[in-house]
Design goal:
The chain is built from one helix and no strands. The chain is mostly helical.
């Protein structure tokens, strides 16, 4: 620390005798007496400077424990800040790694989502095709059921007409036999009417 101690320079000759007095004849001064006064003034100034310096040293020494404590506190704070900085950097690296992992996982999920969406679209198209096939088969089934019912009706109608024709043929044969007995004609069975074309057989099928 800079100590502001100022030492006075040696006084010039004639300064102690007055300033503006008329220049008189120079008197014969004692050289030994002048050197003694200068030495005494220098000693006084040095003593004052020494006292001032001592006070400043004492003041600095009294402030030294507080300053040392403050420096120690500042060093502790700096160390704590360094530790916090290291921990923060470590946490930032961990967060950066987690963010990178999350980004990779998101990309993977996005690809899986796109693939599943494509599969779903393909399944929808296939399902629509299956629905169309089922609809067509249902229409064909209804048409087949309708034709089958008409066929059954035609078969029943044909069976009734056949039975009726056979009954009529048997009845006619019986009458013919009764009429043929007196003439003793040989009996010949007549051809059955099974092959007769019935009106129901001419039903138009769709």
């Amino acid at each position: 620390m800079y100590l502001g101690c100022r030492f006075n320079s040696q006084p010039s000759q004639g300064a102690s005798s007055g300033g503006n007095t008329p220049k008189a004849e120079p008197e014969q001064s004692d050289p030994a007496g002048g050197r003694g006064e200068d030495s005494l003034q220098e000693q006084q100034e040095e003593e004052e400077a020494r006292k001032t310096l001592g006070k400043q040293v004492l003041a600095l020494q009294s402030q030294l424990p507080d300053t040392k404590k403050k420096v120690d506190d500042d060093l502790g704070t700096i160390e704590s800040l360094e530790e916090a900085k290291k921990k923060l950097l470590k946490d930032m690296e961990a967060l950066s790694q987690r963010l990178e992992d999350k980004a990779l996982a998101y990309d993977k999920l996005e690809k899986t989502k796109n693939r599943l969406q494509q599969e779903l679209d393909a399944r929808k198209v296939d399902l629509d095709h299956q629905h169309q096939l089922v609809s067509n088969l249902e229409k064909k089934q209804r048409k087949f059921d309708q034709l089958s019912a008409e066929e059954k009706n035609i078969s029943a109608c044909c069976a009734e007409e056949r039975d009726r024709a056979e009954a009529e043929a048997r009845e006619k044969e019986t009458k013919d036999l009764s009429l043929a007995r007196p003439s003793r004609r040989p009996w010949r069975p007549r051809r059955s009417l099974r092959g007769r074309t019935s009106s129901c057989g001419q039903t138009r099928r769709t």
